[in-house]
Amino acid sequence: MRNEERSADVLRPRVFFRRACSRWSDADEERPRSYWPPMRFLFPLLFLAAGLAQAESSPTRLTQYRLYGKEYVLMTDWARSAKMDLKWIVKEKLLRATNASTRLSFEMDSYAAQLNGINLKLCLPVVLKKGVVYISQVDLESTLHPLLFPKKMDEGDTIKTICLDAGHGGSDPGKIDGTRQEKKYTLLLAEEVERLLKKEGFKVIQTRERDERLETWDRPKFANQNKADLFISLHFNAAANRNVQGAEVYCLTPEGTISSNGGKSAALYPGHHHNAENTLLAYQMQKSLVKKLNVEDRSVKRAQYVVLLTTKMPAILIEGGFMSNPAESKRIYGPAYRQRMAQAIVQGILSYKKIVQRDVPNEHRD
Predict the structure, then answer these.
(1) Which parts of 8-61 fold into alpha helices (H)?
(2) How many CA atoms lie within 13 A of 242 on its CB side?
(3) Whole-angstrom Cα distance, residue 20 to residue 26?
(4) What confidence score (pLDDT) does residue 361 get?
(5) What does the pLDDT look like over 22-34, one tens digit per residue?
(6) Strands in the chain per DSSP E
(7) What does pTM read for this prediction?
(8) CA-to-CA separations, 316 to 3, 49, 65, 162, 283, in angstroms, rounded
(9) How confident is the model at residue 362 (pLDDT cuts 50, 70, 90)?
(10) What is the spatial distance between Cα 162 and Cα 203, in angstroms, rounded to a whole number?
């Protein structure tokens, strides 16, 4: 996948929404609306993710405000309902929400956020207007609540089958660095991840097991036909700036919003059925990669990649590093680092499973 150097978070909110919406007027701003959060956020939930807090979601009625054509709520209202304290770290620039074991940071008029040290790209910018901070309703539902209030799978449901998708193949080489081609290293990584997953008791299927070209739509189709429980697409990155490095994990852009790297507003696809799970899986994977590989954190991001659109299970796309960066590419091509990356990917899957699956056996716990 080609990495877009232009990041959506450089756009000011008004500029962004004028592009995203057909009409905008001051009359639309700050129109209060009553809102009740989805029922699953109204009951006590246990925070099971490593480093996430134990808390209960409150049945507090939140009032919505229409800003730039989108629905927002007051940050103070949300923080109170989530039992979090707010504090300016840098006045009117950086706001932090905390409780006993959760730390959320928000940059004003930006898509940039951070949860317990891991970077997130929000779907819409946090807005500071006349001294008041607003956060979008779509980010509460699709970004923050899936991480802070993770939903358990139904009793008896398990995560057993993992579909690994080694990017590119055959006549599609992917990124090229001299004689080295991305397709070779995604397949080698997939083989190592498969070996480790099988040791953990998972069933593993691969979209390709040799150097062959697959149509992009056939990759999620294969996962759907084989009733995979998770879909993990493996890629490596490249950029014109050879200093760029680090890992990033993508999940599907929520309907009606724009991807982290820009583009058109997302239409509705089957992959949106798992918005909450997609976000949680992407976060756990990014956390594992950053912490275990000690790489630059390029954030959990949103994209409308074809392989994420039609999956009927939680799905993410991993960009494991930059082949264009001399130091990082040297590690990527080596078997020792590949094994470490595979271990990090498996740990990300296990961490996700521990959170969502009921009664996970001890051998699948951190």
Answers:
(1) 13-20
(2) 7
(3) 16
(4) 58
(5) 333 333 444 454 4
(6) 32-35, 44-45, 55-56, 62-67, 70-74, 85-90, 94-98, 103-107, 110-115, 118-129, 132-136, 161-166, 176-177, 180-181, 203-206, 230-237, 247-252, 297-303, 315-322
(7) 0.84
(8) 16, 18, 32, 12, 10
(9) low
(10) 6
